[in-house]
Design brief:
2 copies of one chain form a homodimer. The first copy, chain A, is of the alpha/beta class. Chain A has 2 domains: about 100 residues, Ribosomal protein L30/S12 (60s Ribosomal Protein L30, Chain: A); about 140 residues, SPOUT methyltransferase, trefoil knot domain (Alpha/beta knot, 3-Layer(aba) Sandwich). Chain A contains 10 helices and 12 strands. Chain A has a 7-stranded parallel β-sheet, sandwiched between helices. In chain A, helix 6 packs parallel to helix 7 and helix 6 runs parallel beside helix 10. The radius of gyration of chain A is 20 Å and the shape is elongated. Chains A and B meet through helix 6 and helix 10 of A and helix 6 and helix 10 of B. Chains A, B: Keywords: Methyltransferase, Transferase. Chains A, B: This is 23S rRNA methyltransferase.
Chain lengths: ~260, ~260
């Protein structure tokens, strides 16, 4: 029976499709304790890891069904969906025809060592996902999503993370509490708000243990959190641009600071 | 008469609106020799600079009309448009109610000195615009859009550049020819394709004069151009991400290499 398709869903009006669609909202994800992976790259990585998969969805012309069934060692249910259903579920204009409904498990909190990125009310899901991906590439331990930041499992965040949620710790909560925890362990916390006391980002050397906070695209960091930082860093602008994109700035800072 | 609104256009079906809408396509921009600026930040900068403005468009509830008319020293025509027309012209879900139709003038080619970014078939307009903005911030002289790269004045590129087209030189053309020009002047050209001969990006020191090439998001750089580079650079990935977003990688490289 392994790898067999047991169920076929053709209509976007199907009750099950409506439940899957709710996974695009935070409320729906919390209620179902699951989120949706869209695309072969992500589904393949989930199958290769010990990720709890609730269902696998494939369209009839999905090219890698053999590879999927051979990777599906735990015999997760495979459901055949129509192209119309795939269109309804996907954020992309041309879906790849494969999805996984994946369990949202409470994140285990690792020790606050290594390098951490904290997001203070960052809005744009593409920026957020890109920062998680960059933190992963730079060898960071994790990313903490502060209040007012888009949800970790928002579809556009998931798309931009490109699987980095499987590689590093993703936590959420009020950042002032996290800053206190880092400070209590003598881990330096670097803010990124340009103010008269800010220090050029490339004069601090490399660090094993530190936390870096990136603020909101328009308004920067909250003043309350800023007060608690060890130091504030800035990237000197040489030309005439007013600012850097937050994900680009985060990339420059992470690769500069990480030992 | 200065600053007076002389014309009112209510219907998205209006012939003039259809012409403006064509500015979203490369063909339309080339035919009309113009492109569209969307939003107060960009329009204000165009008014402050010696940019040739053909028309200014404002909705009836545009908040900064007084400031716009006082900045409009050259008495460019101001046309009142309805909210429906603004919606049709804008790429954003909530347009700010101000646009400028700006002349596309042939770019003067500055001497090939300073730092240059070259884009080899980069696809995503958001990435492209962000790289132009970052090149501006890093003090680069200009950006060269190679063949296969999205057009300089594509609306989403313009939006992401955030006005940097007014600050640095933007050129276009076949990159192999540009690489030859740089090489003829002994300007080093750095490629960014991971291959056995690639060098870590942070071991080269800082440079006044150089060119940096970023490749296509999926396929990297063209082999033909790669052969002509002075050296190829890579950013070591420490974690488990497969790659960096191209705009993030460009930001890290530009700020690292620029003297």
């Amino acid at each position: 029976m392994r790898g067999k398709i047991m169920k076929v869903i053709q209509s976007p009006q199907n009750k099950q499709v409506k439940e899957w669609k709710k996974l695009a909202t935070k409320k729906g994800r919390q209620k179902q304790k699951a989120y949706l992976l869209d695309g072969w790259h992500l589904v393949k990585e989930a199958l290769a890891k010990s990720i709890i998969i609730k269902e696998l969805l494939v369209t009839s012309d999905f090219k890698y069904l053999d590879e999927l069934t051979s990777l599906n060692k735990d015999q997760h249910e495979i459901i055949s969906i129509s192209d119309e259903v795939a269109k309804v579920l996907s954020e992309t204009p041309s879906p790849q025809g494969v999805f996984a409904v994946v369990a949202l498990e409470p994140a285990a909190q690792p020790p606050l060592q290594g390098a951490w990125l904290m997001l203070d009310a960052v809005q744009d899901p593409g920026n957020i996902g890109t920062m998680v991906r960059t933190a992963d590439a730079a060898g960071f331990t994790g990313v903490i999503f502060g209040d007012g930041t888009a949800d970790i499992y928002q579809p556009k965040v998931v798309r931009a993370m490109q699987g980095s949620q499987f590689h590093i710790s993703l936590l959420a909560g009020p950042l002032d509490e996290w800053v206190q925890k880092f400070s209590a362990q003598q881990v330096p916390v670097y803010g990124t708000e340009l103010n008269p006391a800010a220090r050029p980002y490339n004069k601090l050397g490399k660090h094993q243990n530190f936390a870096l906070i990136m603020g909101n695209e328009g308004n920067g960091m909250s003043q309350q959190i800023l007060k608690r930082t060890t130091a504030n860093l800035y990237i000197p602008i040489i030309g005439h641009a007013e600012s850097l994109n937050v994900a680009v700035a985060a990339g420059i800072l992470m690769f500069q600071l990480k030992a």
